[in-house]
Amino acid sequence: MFNQTLASGGTATIALKPLLPHSSSVHTYFVFDSQPGKQIQGRVLVVNAGTAIGLVTLYTVDGMTGEDSGVVYPDRSVTRQDVGSWLHLTTTRLTLKPSQSQIVDFTVDIPANVRPGNHVGGIVAALDSPTGTTTTQTSAQNAPFGVQLRHLTIVAVQVNLPGVLQEDLQATDVHEGGANGFQTVVIGLHNMGNVMLKPQGTLVIRNDQGQPLQNVPVKMGTFLPQTAINYPFQIQKQALGAGTYQADLTLQYGENHTLKFTKDFTITKDEVRKTFSPQNTPLQPPTESGFSMQPFWLVGGISISILFAGVLAVAFYLGRRSSKRRS
């Protein structure tokens, strides 16, 4: 559901609700079990629950896996190659008054030659500004400028096709990442199979002596089949300095499958400088020596203690010499 406040003060609030035949339960997205070469018929309810007129554009997209996992949907300009290209809507433009709704029919035309397993796309509703309304902002110099706002809501469409189901997760590479004081180790992952996965496990990072420095747990969201991502593992507490490290990744997924991936990687001084700055260091930044830097007051306190102990020792020695001379 999304909403837009107009210049008149009213708000258009748009929602998409799946309508499934022979079902009394509430569904948040469509799931169709079908066959290659078949056509599926569906209906979606477009609702304006707001207090202003809503001009709505409907279109379809493919589902993708986000860089930190989970299903995301690209801009409509991205070429559709999966469910987004199979979906056909009977209408793509609606004008809805407050509290008005309209049913939109659609079909899913499945190609005859298509792989088995899970396929995901979506129906998107984009709310446009009505004619005659304007949206303006004011800059720091009090100069007005126009802002184009796009308000979107999406309902997912999942199509399951029969055949041999394959669960195959592979890791490809590892490198340092991060910015603004947050350091990550990025590992390339590819779902080579034909079903959705939700991997979970741990990443252990060791120094060049084999000692573990980080033990990062991970519980990923949905990983769509035939997609690849660069997954960022967040470094915790003490950051990694420049040097050579070993990434040891273990992920469990699907029906008792395990991915084990071990590879060395290098962090350069330039990469550390790009990640950390004096203005923004949420993590404890690394030091050149590899040891944590002590606060100035503590270092100064140790120095003063040593100096004071030295003065006492000299005074004691001179006092003993003076006593021997008198005796």
Automatic annotation (TrEMBL):
- The residue ranges crossing the membrane are 296-318
What InterPro entries does this protein map onto? Ig-like_fold, WxLIP_HBD
Keyword Transcription in the entry? The reply is no
- Domain WxL Interacting Protein host binding: where? 153-274
Entry keyword set: Membrane, Transmembrane, Transmembrane helix
**Record-linked Pfam families:** WxLIP_HBD (PF11797)
Q: What is this protein called?
A: WxL Interacting Protein host binding domain-containing protein
Gene source species: Tengunoibacter tsumagoiensis
